[in-house]
Amino acid sequence: MLCLSPLLPAKAQSLDLTHATLVAAPASGPEQAAVTLLLEEVAKRTGIAWEQRAAEAGPLVVVGQGTQMGALLPADLRSAWTAPVGWGREGYTLRTFTYQGRPLIAIAGHDARGVLYGIGHLLRSLAMEKGRAVLAAPLNVTATPEKTLRSHQIGYRFKNNTYDAWTLAQFEQEIRDLAVFGSNAIQVIAPISDDEKASPLFSAPADETIIGIAGILAKYGLDFDLYYPVIRADYGDPAQVAAELADFEALIQRFPAIHALYVPGGDPGHTPPDHLFPLLEKLAARLHRHHPNAELWVSTQGFDQAGYEAFYHQLDRQPAWLTGIFIGPQSRDPMAVQRARIPARYPIQAYPDIGHTLHAQFPVADWDPAFALLEGREPISPRPGDMGVIYRHFQPLFTGFVTYSEGVTDDVNKMLWSQWGWSAATDPAEILRDYARYFLGPAIAQTHADRAAALILNLERNWRGPVRQNTGIGATLQGFLALDQGVAPGNWRWESLLYRAHYDAYARRRAIAEAAREAQATSVLRRAPQLGSHAAVADARAVLATVDDEQTMALRAQVFQLAGRLYHHVGLQLSVRLYGASNWERGANLDRIDTSLNNRRWLEKQFGMIAILPDEAARLQQLAALVNWEQPVPGALYDDLGDPTRSPHLVRGPGMARDPQFFQTAIHSIADVIPGPDWRLSWVTYGETLYDSPLTLHYRGLDPGQSYRLRVTYAGEDYHLPIQLMANKNIEIQQSFSRPANPAMVEYKLPQEAIHDGNLVLQWFRPVGLGGSGRGKQIAEVWLLPVISNNYN
Question: What is the C-alpha separation between 350 and 404, in angstroms, rounded?
């Protein structure tokens, strides 16, 4: 640890650094860039330029590498410097002392990067506002990162929800911000990937921008890594291999430096290992021709079980050109299994998806369908609790990470991962306080960092449990509004949090109102025998057509207003039509804001078909079927498997805390459609399990003497996989069912022996050993229906 014995430790009180003098070692290159970063970021927030010449009074900030600190300290103290014990590569130490009555802060880096990260620690700790920079307490800390790689992916491409609208100046600011929170690399997607060749929002061609990003990283001494999918049709074809190698070499020779090349085995791409590895060996030769020390990493994404075995067989040969394996989405073998099968010489890196909430590597557990339908797959998604579970679960297995990201909607998560790469034990609330202090403006930095951090935590809590019962959602919005007046206009990070808080509150009001309307309409329809079918339908239609109240519409308007601000301030594309997003699923959830949260449109179609029936008895019978949808016969047992609150027989599995990737845990999700004339809400949502894990329902306390039928709605995404249905593990109900339409409703007669002891376990399987996303075994609804004499419906 740092020892400056002739100096007196500073007392535990706030330190005013407003008029500090900066004493820095003569430097060039990355270390000078780090010092410039410090001066510019302080000046940007305070309007004050710290002096860089000797001063007789005022606080001192001394910056340099450990080997330089003796010479940087005042002359009579130079012999006092001792390097910290145990610090290592990229490490730093900060110590605060009183010297001749004034505070002296020493920032010593183990190396040039250590200087940058020590400066970052100081910046995160300072409360800055116009004309003022204050440390709440002395800093005395030594840190060395636990993970050698702390990186984030940037895709300058159409699919991205933000970055395709950025200039190089914006990328430089992002790189600075990530470095302040401890990142040491950026991985950039190659210009040709699973996307369009250009975006209408590009300010410059993709290759020019990517080369510019590489130059920015070199300026700060950070690593530039290239993510290079191999997506030609057949790498068993020598002509296609030759074309790939030519394109690859033409690209990489344009970069000043490449630290590492990352080639996914799939997602995107579909090359079997027996063709992939020979191609990688050839790519490695060309890579090292231009960048001799570059690393090469490959992933197993997308492989089926046979592909994994072929991959492990290739690794058993232990190719010297391969550095290691990165593990990301669409990897059917868990990280622990891969670590056990991969030779020890190859380290593992994590490639976590930190930006998606559904159809994803780490879906939000038990997410209310209202949020899934409105806010979608790629929303503004600070998830400090979930990210902490994910990081702690996997971090013993990986040496570093590159987060998969599609823009700024996961900005908070990037900063959390960056800091956990230094210490997995860091409390997320501490990181969020730094985030609030550094990014959210002077009013929050000075006095409200704790409150802002708590509000970010509350945004994640907004998504816990049923939306209609979560009264904290409104309180979270009010908490943000209470701080909003003190935030300067144009702060996109603050605006993104406001957007989420408003959208959550809007979603809750919509969910409450639409559920109430449908319940009231159903009540009206139950009185159809007394009212008459036409009158009952007319009254039900009027109830369902009730417009949202003024408060809901005001929230909607505010969401639109914030979306516009975010586009103009950071390029976030929350709408396809308004802001040029590539697809609604790619962050453009403004386009989902009017999505129905009940069955109104489906009911309207049913009402139309019922109205043309020839007699009243038939009309009343069909209306009764609508209102008794979940209970078509007395004693029916119903599961809406897409709704966490309405699937009582679903076997949920170990849960996210023990199974963050949901390999053994049931998932509630939604299809790529919205409730409409042909899609009930209960068909849009579904339950599923991944890969070879069965989707399981367990019924208890059944009457062994009762006969039952099973009704199943198969619905979800447009997968076409054969599904097997088993009862009690040994009774086959359906050998292989391929959904003829989406949705499709099927009924089965259950053998009496399936319920002989009053218990029934139903399990759905997809074919064993498949790869890809693992999805496709998707069930929307299940009824267990007692057969009642001859009146079964």
Answer: 10
Report the CATH fold assignment for 8-143.
Chitobiase; domain 2 (3.30.379)
Question: Residue 92: helix, strand or coil by DSSP?
Answer: strand
Q: What average pLDDT does the segment 546-556 reach? A: 99
Choose from 52-56, 265-269, 777-781 the range with maximum mean pLDDT: 777-781
CATH class of 149-368+375-426: alpha beta
What does the domain layout of the chain look like in residue ranges?
Answer: 8-143, 149-368+375-426, 628-793
Q: How many whole angstroms separate alpha carbon 199 and alpha carbon 204?
A: 10
pLDDT category, 1, cuts 50, 70, 90? very low
- And the tokens for 475? 């309180």
d(CA 108, CA 142): 9
Helix crossing, 206-219 with 168-180: angle to 10°?
40
**Domain 628-793, classified CATH 3.60.20.10, yes or no:** no
pTM of the model: 0.96
Structure token pair of residue 377:
């797959």
Task: Determine phi and psi for 668, rounding to 5 degrees.
Answer: -100, 130
Query: CB of 653 within 8 A of CB of 647?
Result: no
Angle ∠(129,130,136) on CA atoms, nearest 5:
30
Query: Is residue 71 very low, low, confident or very high in pLDDT (cuts 50, 70, 90)?
Result: confident
- And the tokens for 152? 């984030």
| Amino acid 12: pLDDT | 59
Q: What pairs with residue 105 in β-bridges?
A: 61, 96
